Amino acid sequence: MCNAELLPRCDILGADWAGVPCLDEKHSSPSNAPRWKPHPWHGVAIGADAPAVVTCFIEIVPTDTVKYEIDKASGYLKVDRPQKFSNVCPALYGMVPQTYCGAEIAALAARRSGRAVRAGDGDPLDICVLSEKAISHGDILLRAAPIGGLLLLDKGEADDKIIAVLEGDAAYGEWRELSQCPPAVVERLRHYFLTYKQSPGGSAGPCEITNVYGREEAHATIRASQADYSAEFGG
Known about the structure:
Layout: E1 54-60, E2 66-70, E3 77-82, E4 92-95, H1 103-113, E5 119-120, E6 126-130, E7 140-154, E8 157-158, E9 161-166, H2 183-195, E10 207-214, H3 215-233
Parallel strand pairs: 5-8, 6-9
Antiparallel strand pairs: 1-4, 1-7, 2-3, 4-6, 7-8, 7-9, 7-10
Helix pairs in contact: 1-3
């Protein structure tokens, strides 16, 4: 007997899951299911509602004192570095699948900031997700609605941070613009990204935030990162 609750979410998983049958009460792994876990960057779809609502792969949660990031080769989370100060990321933090920060992102950043931007940072697009819920760990997928973003330049490379709200969140889920977010929340995010690479006794580091933008510009950033992904990887 078919158990519809066990069907894979094909709007989140990539094309490799298309056509996978539903699971029944006796079989937990159909014979024609993919043998390998989909890569979070390349094997998971951004979602049909993008850029209004996007699928996110979360790498770090606010209780983490170690910075994790996706290993691009394997798709597993790896330890990037322990945080050397007591600062922790004030939101769920991760990346948007099937995006890439390349030439289109760099050109968009140059227009916005009026600065010379030599490239995107060569990574998937970063995203911060606000939620009232305490999510205990990363390495998860969720859906979020972008409401704005921060244009961060790191040694002349564009490294945008999209700000979004968790879909269906009781406290933040109805927000549609960054102007609805208390300034203190945005300032916490700004402070984190301006200091998270700083070493004890070191300088403030090479990062600067030149622009804080709203929903429409966040959507434009996501579209630019999708175009960069297609140019870099095809599709």
